[in-house]
Amino acid sequence: MSNVLIVHAHPEPKSLTGALKDLAVETLTWQGHAVQVSDLYAANWKAIADRGDFLEQAQPDRLSYVAESRHAFATGTQTPDVEAEQQKLLWADAVLLSFPMWWFGMPAILKGWVDRVFAYGFAYGVGTHGGESWGDRYGEGTLSGRRAMLSVTIGGRAPHYGERGVNGRLDDLLWPIQHGMLFYPGMQVLPPFVVYQSDRLSEAEWPTVAEAYRRRITGLFNDQPIPYRTQNGGHYDGQQVLKPGLGAGESGTRIHLVQPGDPTEVLAGTQIAVAATREMETCPGP
């Protein structure tokens, strides 16, 4: 069986978001998986990234958060709360982020978890940098071989987040999280589980939502991830710009999804990368 980390961000334990988190724990445990929950509000997680994150500041006169993050990770002088969350991520074979959408994004406490835990040398700044090499990211990196999924509750109606909806496409709104925070350090990202009109869900509607979420949780290690293009899979040029001929017929963030009409050599490179990822997924977690 596998290890699953749930990072949960909602201030009310009796909320719909909280009920989905509890259902995920119940379903995963029943399947035989080991589960850890980082309940950020319950833990009073420190969301602000500042000088207090570094036990030994390398440059005390002027704060460069990136430089201090790099120094702290390399020298083992990160704060215990940050290091504990990093160890949970390394332990996990899959990561679930559980949160309500507030103002078109995640709650500040969850963004602060990413800001502090995804340190330089851990989630970014990994691999060889120089020349045309931009490091191990977007499909590679420290968290490669793991899966990730969002569980998101939204107050608005589904059509508002559709192709022509006034709020914009949900895939585009979640792009910074799914592609920028999860795929960047190497995780394979599954399509999100979303509940719309969450503040108006009735008791009679809950069983249908619960069953749909159980199915998604049950498929956590089998369902197909979003087919993001890997950075080093041959899709991008030396400036990390999508090569000509790719993304035809699409626009916006969708040009960065592998498409059936892509040239054969690019698809072959992607298939090799996907095969390697799947092989890693069959290995025990660290």
From TrEMBL:
List, for all copies, the residue spans of the domain called Flavodoxin-like fold.
3-215
List cellular component terms (GO).
Answer: cytosol
Q: Which residues form the signal peptide?
A: none
GO MF term set: NAD(P)H dehydrogenase (quinone) activity
Q: Which UniProt keywords apply?
A: Oxidoreductase
| InterPro entries, per the entry | Flavodoxin_fold, Flavoprotein-like_sf, NAD(P)H_dehydrogenase_qn
PANTHER family for the chain: NAD P H OXIDOREDUCTASE-RELATED, NAD(P)H DEHYDROGENASE [QUINONE] 1 ISOFORM 1
Give the family, as the similarity comment puts it: Belongs to the NAD(P)H dehydrogenase (quinone) family.
- Which protein, by its recorded name, is this? NAD(P)H-dependent oxidoreductase
